[in-house]
Write a structure and sequence with these properties.
Elements (H helix, E strand, L loop, with lengths): L4 H15 L6 H16 L5 H20 L1
Helix pairs in contact: 1-2, 1-3, 2-3
Length: 67
């Protein structure tokens, strides 16, 4: 099953965060962008989904620092 455009956007944000090695608080910026996507979707993430997204953003930020 294909992911919705919202989940594709979240995936793009996570990938971009991991690829970008410049700047501070990139996970915070990523979370802000995810929240904008969810507002457009008009269906908020549940608590478990939000925790998963936060973990992905944190991991992506670390990966971006290592590369």
């Amino acid at each position: 099953m294909a992911h919705s455009i919202s989940w594709q956007a979240i995936d793009f944000i996570v990938e971009a965060l991991a690829a970008n090695t410049h700047g501070k608080d990139r996970a915070e910026v990523g979370l802000y962008l995810v929240e904008l996507v969810m507002k457009d979707r008009k269906k908020p993430l549940d608590a478990a989904q939000m925790e998963m997204v936060k973990a992905l953003l944190a991991d992506a930020e670390i990966a971006g620092r290592i590369e």
